[in-house]
Specification:
219 residues; mainly beta; 6-stranded mixed sheet; 5-stranded mixed sheet; 4 helices; 18 strands; 14% helix; binds magnesium ion
């Protein structure tokens, strides 16, 4: 069973991973998308979780695997229909995730109006850090995100640039899916998504949370 750690030593079994697409304007533009009227949601299975220390394995059925650094939130208390003002009651921690995306397969799926389960949900598609307790984060909407590949900066952004802020996301998501203890929410990526190849070394960092590193190999 996939699990994540809430620091210092609390283990959570991961149920579902709720993902938000197109939540930063600069990434929306680079993808040629229109501004969404409400949050765009998709799911990754728990088997996509890849904890720190593991290796990213590039699936052999894709030729274009992209990194997307994202702020991750850990659900601590099961609930539905959470009011925007009360989101902090239900979220226990904040962490770093990479929403690995098979861009070639996604492009094909978009063209044909097909689902994203393969391009976003394959084994290991969600490298993730341990989570810091939410009460140690001073302002969730003022965190700097940086992703480097082989020490070159590829993505830089700030959670202040989100189209839908965290409180809005929790209210919207919990009105559709019951959020269960151990579920993870990933909140969208800033611009700069780009391909990774075998041998690459990825470091993802969010201010106030920390950093994580992964090595990439071919499967
Ligand atoms: Mg994403």
């Amino acid at each position: 069973m996939a699990s994540v750690i809430l620091l210092p030593d609390q283990k959570f079994q991961v149920g579902k991973i709720v993902c938000v697409g197109i939540n930063y304007s600069d990434h929306m533009k680079e993808m040629g998308n229109e501004k969404p009227e409400k949050p765009v949601l998709f799911l990754k299975p728990s088997t996509s979780i890849l904890n720190e220390g593991a290796t990213i394995k590039l699936p052999n059925y894709s030729k274009e695997v992209h990194h997307e650094i994202e702020l991750a939130l850990l659900v601590g208390t099961t609930a539905r229909n959470i009011r925007r003002s009360e989101w902090k009651t239900y979220i226990s921690g904040a962490g770093i995730a990479i929403d690995l995306t098979l861009r070639d397969i996604q492009r094909e799926a978009r063209k044909k109006g097909l689902p994203w389960s393969v391009c976003k949900g394959f084994d290991g598609a969600c490298p993730i850090s341990s989570f810091k307790p939410l009460n140690t984060i001073s302002d969730i909407q003022k965190l700097a995100l940086t992703l480097q590949v082989n020490k070159q900066i590829r993505q830089q952004g700030n959670t202040s640039e989100m189209i839908f802020a965290v409180d809005h996301l929790i209210e919207y998501i919990s009105g559709i899916f019951t959020l269960e203890r151990g579920d993870v929410i990933i909140t969208g990526t800033p611009a700069g998504v780009s391909p990774v190849t075998s041998g690459d070394h990825i470091t993802a960092e969010i201010s106030g949370i920390g950093s994580m590193s992964f090595t990439v190999v071919s499967d």
